[in-house]
Amino acid sequence: MTAPALDAPVGVDLRAPVARANPVAKLAVASLVAFALLLTVDPVTAGAALGLELLALPWCGVGPRGLLRRGWVLLAGAVPAGVATALLGVDAGAVLVGAGPVTVTEGSLQAGVAISLRVLAIGLPGVVLLATTDPTDLADALAQRLRLPHRFVLSALAAMRLFGVLAEEWQALTAARRARGLGDGGPVGRVRDAVARVFALLVLALRRATVLATTMESRGFGAVTHRTWARPSRFGPADAVVVAGGVAIAAAATAAGVAAGTWELLLA
Amino acid sequence: MSTTDPRSNLPARDPRVVAATGAAAALGLAVYLVGLPASVSLFGTPLADLTLPAALFVAFAGTALAAAVLTRTTWRVVDLVVASVLGVAGGLLFAVWNVAVWPAASGALAFYPPASAVLVGVWLLPAVLGGLVVRKPGAAVYTELVAATISAFIGNQWGFATVWYGLVEGLGAEFVLAVLLYRRFGLGAAIGAGLGAGVAVGLMDSLIYYPTFSAGYKIVYVALAMLSGAVIAGVGSAYLTKALARTGALAPLASGRTAERV
Amino acid sequence: MADPRTEPVAVRARARAWGWRHSARKAWAVRGVDLDVAPGERVLLLGPSGSGKSTLLAGLAGLLDPGTGPDDGTGDEEGALLLDGVPARTARVDGVRAGQARSGLLLQDPLAQTVLARCGDDVAFGLENHAVPPGRIWERVDTALAGVAFPYGRGHLTSRLSGGERQRLALAGVLALRPGLLLLDEPTAMLDPDGAVLLRETVTAVLAATGATCVLVEHRVGPWLDLVDRVVVLEPGGGVVADGTPDDVLRARGAALAAAGVWVPGHLPVAGRLAPAKIRTDRPDPGSAPGTGSTTADHGAGDVLLEARGVAVRRPGRAVSAVADVDLDLHAGRTTCVVGPNGAGKSSLALALAGLVAPAAGTVTARGRLADGVRSPHPAAWRPRELVRRIGTVFQEPQHQFVAATAADELAVGPRRTGVPEAETARRVDELLTRLRLGHLARANPFTLSGGEQRRLSVATVLATRPGLLVLDEPTFGQDSRTWAELVDLLADLVAGGTGVVAVTHDERLVEALADDVLRLAQGRPAPVPVGAA
Prior knowledge:
The complex is a heterotrimer of chains A (268), B (262) and C (534). With 268 residues, chain A is mainly alpha-helical. Chain A has helices at 17-20, 23-38, 43-60, 64-88, 106-132, 135-144, 150-179, 186-218, 237-260; strands spanning 95-99, 102-105. Chain A has two domains: 17-134 and 237-260, no CATH class; 146-218, no CATH class. Chain A is 70% helix and 3% strand. Chain A has a two-stranded antiparallel ribbon. The longest helix of chain A has 33 residues, at 186-218. Chain B is flat. In chain B, strands 1-2 form a two-stranded antiparallel sheet. In chain B, a hairpin with a 2-residue loop joins strand 1 and strand 2. Chain B folds into two domains: 15-70, no CATH class; 77-257, Orthogonal Bundle (Arp2/3 complex 21 kDa subunit ARPC3). By secondary structure, chain B is mostly helical. Chain C is α/β, with parallel strands linked by helices and 534 residues long. Chain C has 16 helices and 19 strands. In chain C, helix 12 crosses helix 13. The longest helix of chain C has 18 residues, at 193-210.
């Protein structure tokens, strides 16, 4: 329940070239790579993309510790997804292991590996983006460079900050429910209790949201369409280089898959 | 002002609505008459077989788009902040769900691969809830998009793709609310929006995450996703909106005002 | 574009038969207000809760919008509300266009008034919205921060601020816009005494420096009297019923205002049934404590209920203990007050005494009848339903305690959890509803009650299970004088009946009225205090 930290997180060097790039540039890289990889399920394309991303890591400012801290969820998702595909996916080719309906064939194993690699390769640029980007800078960049409607972007940012405050309320709610004699009904009781606390937290958050809206409006938010930015978000040549790097990774990975003959457009 | 129906943002007999609906229907008819090409296939089905659904989609989408454009109700700051707070709350829900529940629950359902679709409704909750609570064009898309972005920001196994998912799921729910001209926000509308979001996530998943499923599996997957969306996101959101309104927390919003006049 | 003026120009505010009704409400929040505030005047707005003071401030801030269509407004308006002759709403939007706000509004909840993550960005937020050129923004941010004596730089994280610091930051955000009309809606209601004093001093300095007009809503009148030069009293539905110098208005209406819950100097609440001398007399032998007759002895007044030895408490995720080395005995029929500045670890200690967190070091041990029927003598090890029958906890924020959809159900939760028969539960619920003046709200959702009603309900919920020990965290915080007096009476009653009470509080009046023993904490350690010197 904690908001992303604004201080440099463990294992992250915010002075690295990619870390310093405009958030929109990092966003573009993550989008480009994700788009290229979502078109196909093949181990070569995904593997090549993942390899290139790992090679680029030293310039991203995310060291091994930072990668582990932020990226473990990726592994936690990639491995089961791949195993499930290998076991349960459409079978093709020679049977490698078989037990009733659960069979691993050459085809399903290849698909499983491809799925795992793809999850990792899509996720990794995101890990870098999120580990090295301050939410306020991201919002500034989204509103100033991508021209997303600033009223929405800034409201989302303010709402995020509001939830950082609510972490302490969560602890108070937990203590308060115990004080009311609740929360000891076994696993079912625990779940019900958690749901009730989430609801209470949501009510408190919405009440605060109403006051926050009043505050924002009284400081001129939302009244007119034009506003200035105290911290201009700039997109320079270095940012263009980062985007070009993303294009290169996406193109090289796709080329590798096509060359290996494993690349196949999903939607066809 | 007791004569105005607080649920209506847009009069149904507004000539512009009638004209837009007519134009959308004509466009749908045109799609049906021209037909889709038989040479391209989806899930092994030639697109030509999908002409009727596509025509219906075009007609409804046209109506929805017109409704969204013609409903000129602007978002007040409180609408913006409440939708954002719901979105952030949804993102935190996702973060817990993605790590603590989804891996185990989907693993338990692995005996029948498409069965995991019954769980997707949880990811659609912010879309329907945002739409019902805020009642503005775009609320479903925006709330779901914020939730997905926060989820990606905290970190999950799908990384940046989450944001795109959020966009598409939100559009699925938004579409239904728009077809209802942003006039209906009751249980029926909630279930409809849940179904819409369910279709969206079902198709997206079977195209992108389960491309290796057989066509039969894919159809079952989409059907279960719709069911899950209707029940978890639809009924769940309708219930949640009611419960929130009772606490007075939605008082400054249209959804809180219809709760009761006190 | 931004206006090059550097000083705000004091605003003249006028209300002409003004009224506002919130959407979905039958009753007008405020109606028939006629008021003329001259430039530079400082007006204190008083009135019972429900008289529409906050609504009037929101109206002056230009935040109420009746809308143009059927559903795009937030209510209905009548009459006119003008700033320098321009409707307040128009004045606000014009101000945004001109780069200089006509009015600025400070609300009471510090946590809900921080917009962004860094202090500098938070102050800059309003300037950006007013389209101040980027080159001038930071200079104005720095000036505004200096103007409120803000102790941190622009880069400081807002999440690390105390309530008082947040409130000063919010004030800086308002002042950066150089409003000619400062609107303050109970700005110190949620601050501790030190924070309140500092904010008041800041406001005083700011008004002296800018000469801006000021309209203030406050329940605690005394500390602000030096600052204001006029007092206006609103009545629910009755508009302005008194208007004049502070002396004149308080002389004429002080008693009525005090009866309505306003803290008026000279009319401060007296705890009705309490004779402080009686309870505060030293009791060398707890067993022979004088009480209200035989009931005290029957309830074993003076017996030790809870014993804390060398207790240290650590907040989740923190390495350093919030409080340590506390030795404390809590007795039946006695009230112990825990006092000390913010951050002294008072609330952490309360959580440990209440069995809600396990102490990081030392022991909290239940004794006598508090320990009857439980396997462990340590409250933190009790199951919730064992706890709720023995120790009742009242939290600073009543909303944290609410778990049911109606006030009546809220009261029934505890008894039902502890197996009290349904008929007895219903009897207790009715009794408590009547006793705490909540009968008419039995079916209302707890979250929709007013602050005072929520406080009374939160205390009632705790009493429903008849615990032997009550732990209260800032029970009188932000309460009006009427609720305060009721609370003190109720607690005195309970103590006379043999209940042990421990209250963590900043409220010196509460200590004076109730405390038999005082534990003073400073920087996480007990500080010696002469008995009865509180």
